[in-house]
Amino acid sequence: MSGWVKIAGLGPGDAALVTPEVMAALAEATDVVGYIPYVARIAPRPGLTLHPSDNRVELDRAGHALQMAAAGGRVVVVSSGDPGVFAMASAVFEALEAHPEYADVPIAVLPGITAMLAAAARAGAPLGHDFCAINLSDNLKPFDLVLRRVRLAAEGDFAMGFYNPRSASRPHQFGQVLAALREAGAGPRLITFARAVSTPEERLLTVTVDQATEDMADMRTVVLVGNSATRRVGNYVYTPRSA
Ligand code: SAH
């Protein structure tokens, strides 16, 4: 029995942005576990069992991965982007905390290119100075805390990357985030809506926070807010290195 769990990031979408380390892990795997659309990105082959599961069952999925690895499976848990950014890596360690019987299963986290960095690269260099990442979903934290962090990040003049900005079940919270930015004085700042980065549906739109409307974002969009010095040069958006 020499099972393991590797928690791998598949990058933002383009196969060219999957790391060689992740490709090697997938080539050795007996099992792939993950959210349905991410598992759909893995090519089936003999000897590999795909285990797609629904959203919001991260802990069950993580427990299942540990269980299969304890029984000798070589299990790759897939996330989009980077597995440590609002994704499966923490879920696997939470499951490990709850199941000390799996303490000896070898676990490795294989990084990937996260949406915020892929989007920033497309736009230019909007995150070229200090920045932070905030998940706007209130699935695992109260929405008040989301608004508080957005306000404080704006006051601190951080550039920001927003994940999960808007979904069908919470279409209007993003409007409140935009209002919080304006109240904090960030209305004149540049904001970039980067949708489906590195896929054929990719689309980027840069406006000011004052001009932004909530319908500019959906679940496939990562939103980048510049700091007060972020500006345009040619067709690019960049943040100077000094403040
Ligand atoms: N672990 C992932 C993030 C998962 S949360 C990562 O590191 O990228 C899901 C959110 O990520 C989406 O709602 C969206 O905000 C963002 N996202 C993921 N892939 C994206 C892409 N190709 N283009 C734009 N945003 C993306």
Question: Can you walk me through this structure?
Answer:
It is a single chain. This protein has helices spanning 20-28, 36-39, 58-70, 88-98, 115-123, 143-155, 173-183; strands spanning 4-9, 31-35, 49-53, 74-79, 107-110, 124-125, 131-135, 159-163, 190-195, 203-208, 221-225, 231-233, 236-238. It is of the alpha/beta class and 243 residues long. Helix 3 packs across helix 4 and helix 6 (143-155) runs parallel beside helix 7. It starts with a strand and ends in a 5-residue tail after the last strand. The site of S-adenosyl-L-homocysteine has 25 residues, from helix 5, strand 9 and strand 11.
Secondary structural class: alpha/beta
Low-confidence stretches: none
What is the rounded distance between the termini?
55 Å
**Strands side by side in the biggest sheet:** 3-2-4-1-5
Helix content: 25-40%
Describe how the helices and strands are arranged.
Blueprint: E1 4-9, H1 20-28, E2 31-35, H2 36-39, E3 49-53, H3 58-70, E4 74-79, H4 88-98, E5 107-110, H5 115-123, E6 124-125, E7 131-135, H6 143-155, E8 159-163, H7 173-183, E9 190-195, E10 203-208, E11 221-225, E12 231-233, E13 236-238
Parallel strand pairs: 1-4, 1-5, 2-3, 2-4, 6-13, 7-8
Antiparallel strand pairs: 8-11, 9-10, 9-11, 12-13
Helix pairs in contact: 3-4, 6-7
Bound molecules: S-adenosyl-L-homocysteine.
The site of S-adenosyl-L-homocysteine (SAH) has 25 residues, from helix 5, strand 9 and strand 11.
